[in-house]
Amino acid sequence: MRAFTFDTPATVADAVAQAGDGSAYLAGGTTLVDLMKLDAMTPTRVLDINRLPMRGIRLEGARLSVGALERMSDVADHPMVRARYPVVAEALLRSASPQVRNMASIGGNLLQRTRCGYFRDPDTPCNKRAPGTGCPARDGHNRAHAILGTSNDCVATHPSDLAVALVALDASVLLRNRTGERIVRLDDIYRLPENTPHLENQLHPGELLTEVSIPALDWARRSTYVKVRDRQSYEFALTSAAVALDVRGGMIRNARVAAGGVGTKPWRLPAVERALTGRPMRLDTFESAVAHAADGARPLAHNRFKPALLRRTIVRALTGLED
């Protein structure tokens, strides 16, 4: 780990004022500290934001607001989240380990860096860590890598389970910077790698994610998160599906579907949503709707199984919502 300065800002305004090029915010530290130990991230200044007033889980009008410093385990166990947004609670409970969930923050989870082994190893090239050095994953070990949204410069998968659930629900985030605040859809925060994979999101330098806002959809009570992985504990998704359905009289009136483990960002599937809408709540509807789930996929040598696995994962999630 390289040398850095350490500060504890007293207010949100102080935090964004002190942040700049080469700085990093420390919340739970479950990603940042690991990457600093590996020299995959080398901030020159670390700002501990744990004392800032960025907590709380509350229903405000037509939205549920969650402070960015809330711990993953606390949000997963919150009665309002479990009752109104089971897809969020399930995504959190299928993330990491209990110990990590007790430490990791909601904001940190949404902005965590990829778990690509080439990114985490400073002795190998990686366009995401060192632009212009190459992407050895394309021709190397790529079983867990992305098939959607990839480029010639990067095929790293986005790691957050929670982000998949929140993108499906059309959540937004509140960002604080030196000139004020702005609200951005979470789906719009994440950037595709294209030829600049080191630019992972749309945050301005020093900008701080302070709150997550989820629409208060009554029918989000019928939602779930299915995660397919190599083992049941502390493993990242090979594929995952977040689904929510508005069902009345046995007919699907509205649908939200997003996938994880397959994209360079959380992957919303509007074609699948459209194919479900107006159809009966039946297995043949589900199997027909997922036909285009992997449209545009570019599988690599070791992950050619992912398009079919993605379709089966979505069908499994939808089937789990049947009465």
UniProtKB/TrEMBL annotation:
Keyword set, alphabetical order: Oxidoreductase
Protein name stated in the entry: Carbon-monoxide dehydrogenase medium subunit
SMART domains documented for this protein: CO_deh_flav_C
Keyword Lipoprotein: no
Domain FAD-binding PCMH-type: 1-219
Taxonomic source organism: Plantactinospora endophytica
Statement: the UniProt record of this protein carries the keyword Oxidoreductase: yes
UniProt superkingdom: Bacteria
